[in-house]
Amino acid sequence: MMDALDVTVRIVAVFLAFLLLPLLVGQTEHKVMAHMQGRVGPMYAGGFHGWAQLVADGVKFAQKEDVVPDGADRRVFQLAPALALIPYLLVLVAIPVAPGRGVVQALDAGIFFVLAVMGVGILGSLMGGWASANKFSLLGGLRTAAQLMAYELPMLLAAASVAMAAGTLSLPGILGVWEWWWLPWQLVGGVVFFTAGLAELQRPPFDAPIADSEIIFGAYTEYTGLRFALFLLAEYAGIVVLSALTAVLFLGGWHGPSADGLGWLWMLLKTGVLAFGVIWLRVSYPRLREDQIQRLAWTALVPLALFQIALTGVVKVVM
């Protein structure tokens, strides 16, 4: 009975985090962009600090008509938003947020699991772009595929460096042996991992697959109402997952003062700071061209990730 209760509590906690944290990131993005770019609209909806902006957006999406193009592959078109969103829910199951029992399911190959499942989420964009019967959507889907192939490799290599250092593929196992001096040692890998994750999420400045000024809105051009909202929710859920993984692999996760009791708080703080960084990058940098995105991956991030692995090997031998 206690085991069943424990599993139920953990599952409920994951669902609550999955439902609330992406919405919190979305609301924060509205406010941060409003402050940084002088956008007064989101600061007045509902009164104090524009608290009703997120509610207004939700009502707007719910009222929109659900339109499916005549020439679309209807079933694939309708399934794409769910396929884009659900993988991030599965990833949250394996991310440790506190020492001890602060993870829903500890996996021996946790790194491979989370990276593989995150890669599946990209298929939602590919399916939406292909099934929409729209040339702009198809072009956005092809850009998504090219971006995935380019940035999956440096992301995996950067994560492999941490696994080599810790001697385990388990996320709780990595945090169990993590030391503070890993911060400067794994810094290059952390930058590569975070940058590659941004590109896989198609967040600015890597938003060429969406590029509203070029291809309308990429793979999501034909989506309306709640289906479009699911794609947006998947983007914000991806920000939470990417920030949490970066915090676990490169920033020590729950490690900090009084980690036994406040480890969950340190994990949330680190995740929140990284999520703010994602928003700040959107406001601060212009979109990269498609050729610049590919050049950055193959001529900068992959060599840096290989350098990080080599450095990890040298440090392991010396230690």
From TrEMBL:
Species, as recorded: Streptomyces diacarni
Designated name of the protein: NADH-quinone oxidoreductase subunit H
Keyword Transmembrane helix applies: yes
Topology term for the membrane: Multi-pass membrane protein
UniProt main location, coarse: membrane
Membrane spanning stretches: 7-26, 79-98, 110-132, 153-175, 228-251, 263-283, 295-315
EC number, as in UniProt: 7.1.1.-
Keywords: Cell membrane, Membrane, NAD, Quinone, Translocase, Transmembrane, Transmembrane helix, Ubiquinone
Class of the enzyme per the UniProt entry, highest EC level: translocase
Compartment list: Cell membrane; Membrane
